[in-house]
Amino acid sequence: MQVLAPIRSPRWVSTRRIFEQKISDLHKCTDPSQLKQVLAVIYKSNLHTDIFIATKLISAFSLCRQMRSAVTIHNQIRQPDAQAYNVLIRAHVRNSQPSQALAAFSQMQSYGVRPNVFTYPFLLKAFSGLEIVAATHAHVEKFGFVEDILVLNSLIEAYSKCGLMGVCAAKKLFSLMVQTDHVSYNCMISGLVKAGQLTEARELFDEMPERDTVSWNAILDGYVKSGEITVAFQLFQSMPLRDSVSWSTMVLGYRKAGNMEMARNLFDEMPVKNMVAWTIIISGYAEKGLLKEAMRLYNEMEEAGLKPDEGTIISVLGACADSGMVGLGRRVHDSVKRNRFSFGIRVSNALVNMYVKCGCLDEALSIFHGMKERNSVSWSTMIHGLGLHGYGEKAVQLFSRMTREGFAPNKVTFLGILSACSHAGLVDEGIQYFYRMQRDYGVIPEIEHYGCMVDLLGRGGRLMEAFGLAHNMPFEPNDKICGALLAACRKHYTVTRAEDELKQLVQLDLKNTGNLSMLSDIYAATGDWTSVAGARLCMKNMSSEKPSGASSIELDDEYYEFTMMDRSHPKSDMIYQVIDQLGEHLRKISYVRTASC
User: Fold this and answer.
1) Fewest 10 Å CB contacts: which of 148, 181, 444, 473?
2) Closest of 384, 391, 389, 306 to residue 349, by C-alpha
3) For residue 152, how many C-alpha atoms fall within 13 Å in the half-sphere facing its CB?
4) Number of compact structural domains in the chain
């Protein structure tokens, strides 16, 4: 009996399959230089025009944020089909390039390539404007995709990003759908939650035929965002199945509610701790000023084999900046360098901001000058930092350099430069910047910019101009502007003006004892001790109704917090003795400076 040999595919078929498998794995490559080596081999084999190979390359390059290479590869396809355009559109969306995604869609139309059901879901992810989403909706109707549930669900999701009007359009579309699934409900619930319509979202959730984990997480997120943490926890306990998103949402909810103990308990109970959960809990401890716990958890995270991603680094650095925790900030910075993490512009900006707010100007400048690329946030943060630390003239020089290098200052940049001029006493320069805002750069001054100008003029002794600007600006004076005027009155002992401003201030900020303290100083400087006593009595009554202000300091990796008249520290007697000595020293310096003027 003859045994037949197994039938084998021709060798070229087998080779093609192996090659396609390897090409399909290209998305796993995160090194652009390796991708370019693969591309060189493909060019040599003249396979770069093959649609299957080209689309895999486009996707891989886009994941590495190499969009120029991705677009070049797409342009070399001889006859790109809908799939090729879909991949390109998705690549642009992935890299936050909505206008380029729309341009690719327009090119697709001009070349007569008909979109398919996958084109619109990719395209709609790029938009958050009601007009463009509505135009895409009309396009969907024109090409006959109005009954495709994938396309309709994408439209609901897109409309839900467009504010209240968009949510209304999403609700109308949802009500007209002949067929819905759990994705339709999930998109609608998420949209209602974003719009703050939690009651409607809950009603829709309760009437769902079937719920998945996404449904539960959507409504859970709604209660957490609205601050209803008790209801959120009840829902959480009722969930048939929880994933990492469910756990992270609850940890974040308790952190926002200020209950770090409960947040930590839930974090410790998590079956699998993802990077989001680690970020939430570490940032929470940092915001609370609990340095040792934040550092310990950060070390635990790294010991568990988890390397912080860009989102984690930025979030933790932001918390360090807000709480003044330079120790943890430096720890994160060292971790970034040790892991050879790519210093993207967002990470560099976060580091500059952290060092600026923690008082480490040299480190901030070092990172700023070492940045390969900068954006308006980089320049604005550094200009603000220089002004904050009293280097007004250097802030002015940096502003000039920014404009010379072709960067247009925005409203945040102008806040920084105006504040810098105010603190450095550069009155004339500040006035010039204020008038150049709208004239040269089209930036309309907001109330914060007027506040900086009032402070600038008040510090410079130009009280009449300060009051004129405050009363003629196109906004009602707020507590900060009136406070700046009152501070100017204190500096120049203008009692009548100060009393007039206080009447406005009291209506705006009834609990601010600092304003009364300034008025008391004015009365004392003019010898009106009766009025001093009256102001002090009002301060005393107000202080009993509000918690004491607190200050904090980080020393040798220890974080200390102090409140007024606090004696809880074991060395409080020694601390107050040093404070008295510092106060006496400052009074002597002040007397010498006054005498020499």
Assistant:
1) 444
2) 384
3) 22
4) 3
CA distance 560 to 304: 29
Q: Tell whether 559 is covered by a domain.
A: no
Residues 471 and 434 in one domain: no
Please give the mean pLDDT across all residues of the chain.
Answer: 83
Per the domain annotation, does 6 fall within a domain? no
Q: 32-63 pLDDT, tens per residue?
A: 777 788 778 777 777 777 888 888 888 888 88
pLDDT digits (tens, 9 = 90+) for 231-244: 999 999 999 999 99
Burial class (CB in 10 A: 0-12, 13-18, 19+), 156: buried
- Percent of residues in the chain assigned helix, strand, coil, to nearest 5: 70, 0, 25
Q: What share of the chain has pLDDT > 70, as a percent? A: 81
pLDDT exceeds cutoff 50 at 11? no
Residues 460, 518 share a domain: yes
**Residue 434 near residue 410, CB atoms below 8 Å:** no
Residue 20: the pLDDT is: 64
Secondary structure letter of residue 463 according to DSSP: H
Q: What is the CATH number of the domain that holds 475?
A: 1.25.40
Q: How far, in Å, CA of 408 to CA of 429, rounded?
A: 18
CA neighbours within 13 Å on the CB side: how many for 371?
A: 23
Residue ranges making up the domain that contains 455: 450-545
Residue found by looking up tokens 């560099």 in the block: 348
Q: Could you tell me the end-to-end alpha-carbon distance of the chain, in angstroms, rounded to an integer?
A: 119
- Arithmetic mean of pLDDT, 547-575: 59
Give the helix ranges, DSSP H, for 324-404: 326-338, 345-357, 361-370, 376-388, 392-404
Following DSSP, what letter does each residue of 422-445 receive, concatenated? HHHT-HHHHHHHHHHHHHHH----
Output 113-117 pairs: Cβ under 8 A, ≥24 positions apart: 113/80, 113/81, 113/82, 113/85, 114/82, 114/143, 115/82, 115/85, 115/143, 116/82, 116/83, 116/86, 117/145, 117/148, 117/150, 117/151
Q: Which residue has the higher pLDDT, 283 or 513?
A: 283
Would you put residue 7 in left (φ > 0), alpha (ψ -120 to 50) or beta?
A: beta
Q: Give the residue, 340 or 351, on which the prediction is more confident.
A: 351
Asked whether residue 333 is domain-assigned, the answer is: no
Q: Per-residue pLDDT for 555 more than 70? A: no
Q: Does the pLDDT of residue 340 top 60, yes or no?
A: yes
519 and 475 together in one domain: yes
Token pair belonging to 143: 């090409």
Which class for 111: exposed (0-12), middle (13-18), buried (19 or more C-beta within 10 A)? Answer: exposed
Residues 389 and 421 both lie in one domain: yes
Count of helices and strands (H, E) across the chain: 33, 2
pLDDT given for residue 546 in this prediction: 46
CB 504 within 8 A of CB 477: yes
**CA torsion angle 284 288 290 291 (round to 10):** 80
**How confident is the model at residue 47, as a pLDDT?**
75
* Statement to judge: residues 429 and 511 lie in one domain: no
In tens, the pLDDT along 196-221 reads 999 999 999 999 988 999 999 999 99
Residue 229 lies in a domain: no
Query: Could you identify the residue written with the tokens 């606090």?
Result: 566
Rounded to whole angstroms, how far apart are CA atoms 354 and 171? 43
Q: Are residues 418 and 439 in the same domain?
A: yes
Tokens of 106: 């327009």
Beta bridge partners of 555: 558
